[in-house]
Amino acid sequence: MLERNQGSLTNNTVIAALARVKTLSIVRQLDSNDKSGQLTPSQNPLDLSTADLNNMNSSISELPMHQLFLAGAHLRFSSFAARDLTAANFQGAYLIEAQFGQAILTNSTFSIAILAIANFLKAYLKNSDFSRATITEADFSQTNIDYADFSQCYGNLFKCIRCVGVYTSFINAHLPHAIFTNQMC
């Protein structure tokens, strides 16, 4: 049935939309440990874009979360610390006090996302896209930002102490009060 309906349980768009709304409604009612259990690797990942996943703690699971799709999701006090999130999509997401310390975020996108008081300490951000993101009080210290794109991002109190990065783009970025020390960008 999934093959007949292009990965959906039904070819009726109204039923599919209602099922998605019900799924997101149920996810909102889960506690932080239950929410993280809903994110499992699969060929057809669950689209949780625009979902409210506040207080989610994905750090309790050790499974990689490649190609995680959370575009537009609201993630307040959520933790992805020390997780492999290769090719994750957080485009347009609201990441308030989110923890990404020591996470692997190669080829991930945070473009046009809102990042406030976010922790990326010692994360691996090679070839990640932060273009046009709003970044306030975020710590990118000791990260690898090779080939990362921070072009046209706006931020305040952006901290990048001892970052390592080649071909990293900050073209037209507006980062007043940014701290860059001992980096190789």
UniProtKB/TrEMBL annotation:
SUPFAM superfamilies: Pentapeptide repeat-like. InterPro entries: 5peptide_repeat, Pentapeptide-BTB/POZ_domain. Gene3D superfamilies: E3 ubiquitin-protein ligase SopA (2.160.20.80). It holds the Pfam family Pentapeptide. PANTHER family: BTB_POZ DOMAIN-CONTAINING PROTEIN KCTD9. This is Pentapeptide repeat-containing protein. It comes from Rotaria magnacalcarata. The lineage of its organism: Eukaryota, Metazoa, Spiralia, Gnathifera, Rotifera.
